[in-house]
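If your schedule permits, I should be very grateful for your opinion on a structural question. I would ask you to consider whether the tokens describe a fold that such a sequence might reasonably adopt. Thank you for your consideration; the sequence and its tokens are set out here.
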Amino acid sequence: MDLALLKALNEERLARRACILVTDLTSGAQRLVREAEVEADDLAPDLSKALRSGKSGRRGDDLFLNVHLPPPRIVVIGAAHISQALVPMAELAGFDIEIIDPRTAFATPERFPGLRLQAEWPELVLKDRPLDSYCALVAVTHDPKIDDLPLIEAIKAGCFYIGALGSRKTHAKRLERLAAAGLPDHKTARIEAPIGLDIGASTPAEIAVAILGSVISAFRKRKMHAERRGETEAL
């Protein structure tokens, strides 16, 4: 691979931006297509399909599409029983997952062995490790002082999934707070609450299954860069 092309590829990966390396199998020529450039590319339908699936492969007899997606990341706000059940399921499904909770009685290594666990306020953690469009935000503390700011940051960052624990009544009050913080209704409508697929879940493990189902569905059906840009321009 050309050194300049390798450098460009590494820059995209470090910045957690998706891209595709297109190789002409006949000539050996290669080019890098960034997610932001897909819409204008001659191969746009094939490139979009490859980005959604995350699978590399041949296109016809002459081209190979090598897909590079940032590792999808689940950021859980709250070291709850649901979180304990969600962690191993998410890891088996191929997601990076981390827990943020300033409540040190809950955010302990004993409850989450071997996991990236931050017993800090979310605003401090997210300042150094910000959310992006390849992140899912799962808020489960039931405490507005802890949950609200990450939800706002997730909306601003364009996270592919945003969910929050709580009843419809609880969520209605949450929406009032977010509106008071300046977020329009069409943005806060992205928050899934009650959280997770409607499977009648009642136990922490069942709720975790419902959450992971929603996260996987949102990731596979996520909007591409051009679609997200269109939403931003419509504000």
